[in-house]
Amino acid sequence: MAKEQIINERKKKIAFPIIARYNCALRYLIEVGLGQQYIMQPRMTKKTLDIGSRYSPDTVCTPFKTTLGSMIEALESGADTLFMVYGICRLGYYGELQEQILRDLGYQFEFINLAEYTTGKTRDYLKELKRLDTKIHPARLTVTVMEFIKMVEYIDEAEAEYYKNCGFELTKGAYRKAINQFWNDMDRAVSKNDIEEGHQRLVDAFHAIPLKKEEPLRVGVIGEYFTVQDDFSNLELEQKLADMGVEVHRWMNFSHRNMHYSGEKNLNVRIHDLCEYEMGPTSTANIWCARDYAERGFDGIIHVKSAGCTPEIDIMPVLQNIGADYKIPILYLTYDSQTSDTGLMTRLEAFYDMLRMRKKVIR
Q1: I need a surface site. Which of 91, 186, 304, 313 has the fewest CB within 10 A?
Q2: How many Cα atoms within 13 Å fall on the side-chain side of residue 272?
Q3: Phi-psi map region of 113: left, alpha, beta (phi>0 left; psi -120 to 50 alpha)
Q4: Alpha helices of the chain — where are they, by DSSP H?
Q5: Nearest to 290 by CA among 242, 243, 324
Q6: Using CA atoms, how far apart are residues 344 and 133, in angstroms rounded to an integer?
Q7: How many other C-beta atoms lie within 10 A of the C-beta of residue 57?
Q8: What letter does residue 172 receive in the DSSP assignment?
Q9: Distance between CA 327 and CA 170 in Å, rounded?
Q10: Residue 15 pairs with which residues in a beta bridge?
Q11: How far apart are CA 95 and CA 89, in angstroms?
Q12: Cβ 161 vs Cβ 206: under 8 Å
């Protein structure tokens, strides 16, 4: 037992900022693939945002504040090594600034900023991972990465199915119970079999839930990568819509944008009349997605962004043209650290009533 304790003490205690629902997959990658300990800080709350806002520049976007607050909570939970994700907007610069803020606050930790390793070459990532374990096994890690990818795909499939149907269940709370069990299964998974069994358990549970769905309102949700996926950051937008009896669709997730992305140039071919140039990290995809929802006869579109998100601000005139051309209503939601749940509900209820009346007139 003493020898086992010594081995455990040598493990790095690693954390990422909370990223939507993907931290259970990151935990699997770190613990199963790298043999290190993953620190799962609490789910983000108002306290997380308040902490991050306290130490952040006023003009940065809200994801900077929430990820900073999440990293502080991870350090307070015992993490000694932090990973920061990267992006091709200002997010790519945030890690360096956040590291300096945390060090100025007196925290001692090792910081791995993935923005410094975006060459696309596997050897550069392996070089960085060897800071965690000099005896890393590339073959074992490769297998675990594939299992990590599969878990992420299952997570995205689960959320898509949940928000599409949970507003129409005959047994109240059945979908929530099923997906909560899935989250628990993913949190505890230590093998490929655990992942597959948890996924199959969810599929069976979803299929067993009776639905009553008659000409539902269909709303497509698009927007800035972080805010549109994270239920805390968008004040549970999708759940609120589902509770109103809306069939909610969201293309933007890790699987679509990071693993099965057709590329900016390919998407530009489809929207060349609307977008002549590449417009940023998620902008081209959101323009394409908005037109796709409009062409498929959706009842409305909601565009989500954090305050000051330049790429998403840039596409708003294009979205207005799509709305006018296809006669589809678009609701624009901007989130910052002061956005209230009450204000959001007021706007959603008004949007819902307008869509419902419009559907009756068109029908």
Answers
A1: 313
A2: 4
A3: beta
A4: 2-10, 23-28, 46-54, 62-76, 91-104, 122-129, 138-165, 174-188, 192-207, 225-229, 237-243, 254, 264-270, 283-295, 310-326, 341-362
A5: 324
A6: 46
A7: 9
A8: T
A9: 33
A10: 82
A11: 12
A12: yes
- Give dist(CA 5, CA 8) in Å, integer: 5
Tell how strand 330-335 and strand 37-38 pair up: unpaired
User: How many angstroms separate the CA atoms of 69 and 103, rounded?
Assistant: 14
- pTM of the predicted protein model: 0.91
Other Cβ atoms less than 10 A from the Cβ of 7: the count is 10
Tens digit of each residue's pLDDT, the chain (363 residues): 444 444 445 789 999 999 899 999 999 999 998 889 999 988 999 999 999 999 998 888 888 999 999 999 999 999 999 988 776 677 778 888 999 999 999 999 999 888 776 655 666 666 666 666 656 777 788 899 999 999 999 999 999 999 999 999 999 999 999 999 999 999 999 999 999 999 999 999 999 999 999 889 999 999 999 999 999 999 999 999 999 999 999 999 999 988 887 776 667 777 888 887 777 778 889 999 999 999 999 999 999 999 878 888 889 999 999 999 999 999 999 998 888 899 999 999 999 999 999 988 876
Residue type, 261: Y
3-state secondary structure of 33: helix
Query: Packing angle between helix 283-295 and helix 310-326, nearest 10 degrees?
Result: 20
Residue type at 120 in one-letter notation: G
How far does Cα 80 stand from its chain's mean position?
24
